[in-house]
């Protein structure tokens, strides 16, 4: 008998079939287009966005590593297969 699907973590911004502000470029652009009169808050917002970006980039790199390991190829080959520049 198969086990029931795991319950989603509500704090996790990465959910299949749903968009978050990080993944929705239109929503993200609108939030960045409205300048905050408080420079301290602006800096904090940019730091928060950079952290989210870094987290997503790390997840993507980890997934690429799993694919490379599964295929028994170098990461460079997986990047090429997915049309991703190594600098991305």
At a glance:
With 88 residues, the protein is mostly helical. The chain is built from 3 helices and no strands. Residues 1-18 have low confidence and may be disordered.
Describe it.
With 88 residues, the protein is an all-alpha fold. 56% of the residues lie in helices and 0% in strands. The chain has three helices and no strands. It has helices at 25-33, 39-71, 75-81. Helix 2 (39-71) packs across helix 3 (75-81). Residues 1-18 have low confidence and may be disordered.
Radius of gyration: 17 Å
Report the β-strand fraction as a percent range. under 5%
Structural class by SSE content: mainly alpha
Helix content: 55-70%
Q: Count of helices?
A: 3
Number of strands: 0
Mean pLDDT: 77
Q: Runs with pLDDT <50, length 5+?
A: 1-18
State the end-to-end CA separation. 43 Å
The biggest sheet amounts to: none
Per the principal axes of the C-alpha atoms, what is the gross shape? elongated
H/E order of the elements? HHH
């Amino acid at each position: 008998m198969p086990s029931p699907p795991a319950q989603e973590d509500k704090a996790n911004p990465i959910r299949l079939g749903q968009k978050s502000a990080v993944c929705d470029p239109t929503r993200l652009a609108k939030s960045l287009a409205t300048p905050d009169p408080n420079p301290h808050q602006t800096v904090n917002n940019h730091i928060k966005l950079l952290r989210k970006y870094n987290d997503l980039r790390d997840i993507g790199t980890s997934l690429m590593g799993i694919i490379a390991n599964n295929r028994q190829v170098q990461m460079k080959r997986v990047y090429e297969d997915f049309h991703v520049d190594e600098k991305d």
